[in-house]
């Protein structure tokens, strides 16, 4: 008999930041806060997009202003690959144009610098919870589809009634 419990592999985060101090600080903090999480790190949007394509991380955290490719361009490329990707922008830019671009692309969260790590970790926690719930829902739906096929294809008759005896379902063998 197959288990129906949660079987998802490790959650992963891609962190894209060109400032070496912020990048190193974050790379040290994340494993302490989330020891079971896989962390990928890039120093520009182009490298971040390449890492995303290779690993498909669950969450992307990025700065906007970076060399080679900015965070908005990288985010647009990520959303083209995986429209439901979870992206958190952490930036000093609070210009309305950047905020509107972020909304148009489908950025999930926008956190202003200087980073309030309590707020950032709270946002990451919400994202992780959402990813776990979606994964569990997909697993449960797959299991229900399997059970439904078993009943539909069963050589035995199956009938489901409500509490008043009204027939709600008959499988093909019954009919």
List the helices and strands and how they pair.
Elements: E1 12-16, H1 20-33, E2 38-42, H2 45-55, E3 59-62, H3 71-81, E4 86-91, H4 96-105, E5 109-112, H5 117-152, E6 159-161, E7 167-170
Parallel strand pairs: 1-2, 1-3, 3-4, 4-5
Antiparallel strand pairs: 6-7
Helix pairs in contact: 2-3, 3-4
> Biggest sheet: strands, sense, closure?
5 strands, parallel
- Distance N to C terminus: 29 Å
Average pLDDT over all residues: 85
Low-pLDDT stretches are: 1-8
Number of strands: 7
Q: Kindly provide the radius of gyration, computed on alpha-carbon positions and rounded to a whole number of angstroms.
A: 22 Å
**According to CATH, what is the topology?**
Rossmann fold
Fourth-tier CATH superfamily name? Response regulator
Keywords:
175 residues; Rossmann fold; 5-stranded parallel β-sheet; two-stranded antiparallel sheet; 5 helices; 18% strand; elongated; disordered N terminus
Could you walk me through the main structural features you see in this protein, from its secondary elements to its overall organization?
The chain is α/β, with parallel strands linked by helices and 175 residues long. The chain has one domain: Rossmann fold (3-Layer(aba) Sandwich). It has helices spanning 20-33, 45-55, 71-81, 96-105, 117-152; strands at 12-16, 38-42, 59-62, 86-91, 109-112, 159-161, 167-170. Strands 2-1-3-4-5 form a 5-stranded parallel sheet, sandwiched between helices. Strands 6-7 form a two-stranded antiparallel sheet. Helix 2 (45-55) packs parallel to helix 3 (71-81) and helix 3 runs parallel beside helix 4. It starts with 11 loop residues before the first strand and ends in a 5-residue tail after the last strand.
